[in-house]
Design a protein that fits this description.
Blueprint (H helix, E strand, L loop, with lengths): L24 E5 L6 E5 L10 E2 L2 E2 L1 E3 L4 H4 L3 E8 L6 E8 L8 E5 L4 E5 L8 E4 L26 E6 L3 E6 L16
Antiparallel strand pairs: 1-2, 1-5, 3-4, 6-7, 7-10, 8-9, 8-11, 11-12
């Protein structure tokens, strides 16, 4: 029997954390200087008044990937198994102005914000630890089975040309049932 090794980032919880543990997030942006304001907390996120450069900031209203697919296509993959959980975010921008400016990953316990350099090519990798790294199995990459360990996570990807796109991590496929990973 192989001894299991516990890495320092591994989650040792026996149950998946509730997705409602982390409050929702809304994004506001100053149209003059471009400053970004991610706001979490209360349910009235849409009613916030944030001022920057003496003007009221604009709330970024998220669209679905289907609504933005003629501008930017976004997908993801969960990798790492038990010890090295990560979410890889992939994108394909139809034009340079649709390329992402930043990506935010909302998790069980908070969120990760990364700015995308003009020269950055996909994927953008978000390493997970502690409760955010909860996994039912050690498959690498994730088999996208019925347990959907990261259900509750949301990817927000923003570009000036495509706006804000939100993609929940809720993919589920049946390819794991085909036996494709079994060795012959």
């Amino acid at each position: 029997m192989t001894e299991q090794k516990y890495g320092p980032k591994r989650c040792r919880d026996t149950r998946k954390p509730p997705a409602s543990q982390c409050p929702e997030v809304a994004f506001y942006r100053c149209e003059e200087c471009g400053t970004l304001f991610p706001v979490t907390g209360s349910k009235a996120l849409e009613e916030k008044e944030i001022f920057c450069c003496k003007n009221k900031t604009k709330r970024l209203v998220p669209s679905t990937p289907a609504q933005a697919e003629n501008k930017i296509i976004v997908t993801y993959q969960i990798t790492g198994g038990y010890n090295d959980n990560a979410v890889q975010v992939f994108w394909k921008a139809e034009k340079p102005e649709f390329a992402p400016e930043w990506i935010y990953l909302k998790t069980f316990t908070g969120g990760y914000l990364k700015y995308v350099a003009e020269t950055k090519r996909p994927p953008m990798v978000f390493a997970l630890a502690d409760t955010d790294a909860f996994a039912y199995c050690d498959e690498d990459p994730c088999l996208e089975c019925v347990f959907r360990c990261k259900r509750g996570f949301v990817i927000y990807i923003y570009s000036r040309g495509a706006g804000l796109v939100h993609l929940p991590l809720d993919k589920m496929t049946a390819h794991w049932q085909t036996g494709a990973k079994e060795k012959i």
